[in-house]
């Protein structure tokens, strides 16, 4: 006891007895609880900050997408400087977001304890849990970015702008996370925000792909049901790889909304 307390504050052993008498707890335990509260508050701030940063980045991506889509009259040949600039701007954020997700995973697993050093076990557990989201981010950085910057031959800025619009739902998802952290997940605001997140996710992450095929069909005078056969195979495969995780995540959102609806009915 005295060794632990003395190493922390250099206090005499009699002070431990005095604190135990006054507080009803051993000083070491008080110190550990205070440290746990500090770490819990710190990680909550980190989580909230990264969530807000995600919302800001998504809002900027949406604004860039609206600007590009509204500026390109010809969906294939018209170009806009914002496309390449925002891709370069957004790539570092994707790598940061992977790290932020890892920190959040460690905090969730370790609770309010002082976090341990990075370990292969923690990284492996994180990758097993969030492998699809991590893969999505890495594909955007190491495949989507080079294709956009070097292999498009200046074509298709309109469609890159459309892909920026997929971020429209992210601010509402981030708001939902913050409301949960504030213990406001039983409020009407949380339910309304969840409904908006569902609608924007379905519109801008799933319906967006048929819309892009339809716009290309208009440009090439090809019926919608024939557009896929008119495009190169790698274009269709790329769109399929982008669409597949969106469908999976939308299914998760639907299940979460269903659980919330059942909980609301029980409370009523």
From TrEMBL:
Protein origin, superkingdom: Eukaryota
Transmembrane segments: 42-69, 81-102, 131-152, 158-180, 192-216, 236-254
Localisation: Membrane
InterPro entries found in the cross-reference section: TLC-dom (IPR006634), TLCD (IPR050846)
GO CC annotation, single: endoplasmic reticulum
Swiss-Prot/TrEMBL keywords: Membrane, Transmembrane, Transmembrane helix
GO biological-process terms attached to the record: lipid homeostasis
Membrane topology of this protein: Multi-pass membrane protein
TLC domain residues: 43-262
Database matches in PANTHER family: CT120 PROTEIN (PTHR13439), TLC DOMAIN-CONTAINING PROTEIN 3A (PTHR13439:SF20)
Name of the protein this chain belongs to: TLC domain containing 3A
